[in-house]
Structure formats: C-alpha cells, structure tokens
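Researcher: I'd like a candidate sequence for this fold, 313 residues long. If you have to choose between options at a position, lean toward the conservative one.
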C-alpha cells in the first residue's frame, strides 16, 4: 500500500478539530464524500476499523486509536510547518510564527518583560500565546501545537522536556491598600497574620501555602481557589480577601495592590522556559532564546549556546 500524503493527515485533523465533516469540508474546501474516503483510507492503512465514532448526526468523537493518531498527525504536520518556516527564514530573513504555551494569566508580564522588545527587534515574527494549565501546556508542546513553554509550576513528566531557563519567584500575600485584613506597616507578612483571614489562592501554589499553614498551626479562611492568578487577585481588587499568589521580585501588580513576602513560608516557587527534548527549534525560537538570555536575567539551566549550535548542524 502506498504511503499516505500529508494532506490526508491534515484533513483528518480538520475533521477532529471542526467536530464534524460539514465543518471540516467548509474549512479545507473539500467535499464531504472525499473526506469520508480519506478517513476510510486512514483506517485501512493503519488497520484500525474505527478512528472516529459518530454520536447523533453531528458530534464526532475520537476512539482510542483515533486519539493516538491525532497526536502523531499533529506532530507530523507541525514538523512540515517547521521545515517550511526554516526555509522561509533562510530565503527571506527572520520571519515566521513563534508559538508559546504559557501559564494562565501570565501573558501580561511576559509581553511586557520579553515579547515587546523581541517583536520590536524582529517585526516579521508573529507570536501566538496559548494560555493553559500545566497539563494542557504539556500536551500542546508534545503535540507540536506550540514550540516553547512558560511554566509556573513544575512539569509532571520531566523526562519529556528540557528546561532552558529558571526564574525564581516568591509566594506573596497581596492585599488592597484599603484592606481591613492587614496593615501596611511591616516589611513582610508572617503566616500567623493570616490566621482566620479570608484568602484567595491561585491553584498552582495553593498546596504549598496550605501545607505551610498546617505546619505552622495556622488556619486561614479559604474563600476561593482559582485556576488563574488574575482571578485570585480579583478578590483582592474588591477588598474581599488576601490573595496568595506567586510574584516576581520587583513586580508591580497595579494600582492599589500591596505586595508582602510571607517571611516564614518555605516555598520553592519558580517559572521555567522549556522545550520538548530532542525536538528541533525553529530559527525564530533560537533568536528568541538568545534575546531572552541577554535581556531577562534568568538563570540558564542548560548550555544554551551549545544547544543552539547543535540545532544548526
């Protein structure tokens, strides 16, 4: 049997992501019978009787075999896109699209501290930011949807990723300057100051904070645990709680917010920049990493120049 063309995989991805043959047909401008035939060719080629299962007249779901094929098809198509971008970079200068998986609500800081200057230096590179929780971030990178990850919590499957940079943060108590819960008269906060105080936690650091409170015999009143830091801070904005969130040293969270380090909380909190191990980087990504190393002051975890030199071999 002849090998399948890459367009077949792309059209399979379109069916899955559109959720229907009708939507995929409109997107790729191919008639539904032709798409159905390509799906049958995929099933015959891999010996899998069912890759998709249809529920009702519209909803399409992936079988277990379909989920495996979807991940690999995503990766194969991303490699072709990467090759095309590499050739365009060589022929026409530094152009292309650089895709990041970034922790929820951390885009504003990343844009201000890194992307603003980078895009001014390389105006022909378009950036795409995919905000997600750590598990979805990992899958985006492994599936080739994104190329670099900005993680705010340790990655679950470290064997799959290479950490390029690490930037330490601190877990801080953030309160409104008109708050009735804390006074802005001390350089830092202690856990005992938070006993029986309403707190709003960001999910990534909630366990660290609550474990520290338990060890100190302190019982704060947990008002809310939020997926994103920005939502956790919204409780402080309306003066309803103290937010416990990770903060970069010297970071300004905006007017009205007072940031105090929690002095007696032993918390190892940091952000990392990661890539998938043994996966080549685009020229745009290489330029970004060199720019980040020059301008951001983060700790290099790898030998960046050695890594980038190998990328060009």
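Model: Candidate sequence:
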């Amino acid at each position: 049997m002849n090998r399948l063309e890459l367009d077949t995989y792309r059209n399979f991805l379109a069916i899955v992501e559109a959720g229907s043959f009708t939507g995929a047909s409109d997107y790729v401008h191919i008639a539904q019978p032709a798409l159905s035939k390509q799906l049958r060719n995929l099933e015959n080629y891999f010996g899998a009787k069912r890759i998709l299962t249809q529920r009702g007249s519209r909803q399409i779901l992936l079988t277990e075999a379909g989920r495996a094929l979807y991940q690999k098809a995503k990766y194969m198509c991303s490699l072709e896109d990467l090759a095309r971008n590499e050739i365009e970079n060589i022929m026409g200068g530094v152009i292309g699209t650089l895709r990041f998986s970034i922790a929820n609500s951390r885009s504003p800081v990343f844009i201000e501290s890194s992307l603003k200057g980078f895009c001014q230096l390389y105006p022909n590179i378009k950036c795409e930011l995919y905000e997600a929780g750590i598990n979805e971030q990992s899958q985006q990178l492994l599936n080739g949807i994104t190329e670099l990850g900005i993680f705010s919590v340790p990655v679950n499957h470290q064997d799959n990723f290479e950490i390029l940079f690490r930037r330490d943060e601190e877990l801080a108590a953030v309160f409104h300057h008109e708050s009735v819960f804390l006074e802005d008269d001390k350089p830092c906060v202690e856990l005992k100051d938070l006993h029986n105080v309403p707190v709003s936690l960001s999910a990534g650091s909630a366990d660290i904070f609550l474990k520290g409170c338990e060890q100190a015999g302190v019982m704060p009143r947990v008002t809310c645990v939020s997926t994103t830091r920005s939502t956790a801070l919204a409780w402080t904005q309306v003066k309803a709680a103290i937010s416990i969130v990770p903060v970069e040293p010297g970071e300004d969270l905006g007017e009205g917010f007072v940031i105090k380090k929690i002095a007696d909380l032993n918390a190892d909190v940091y952000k990392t920049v990661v890539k998938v191990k043994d996966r080549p980087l685009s020229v745009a990504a290489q330029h970004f990493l060199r720019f980040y190393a020059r301008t951001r002051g983060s700790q290099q975890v790898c030998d960046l120049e050695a890594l980038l030199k190998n990328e060009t071999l």
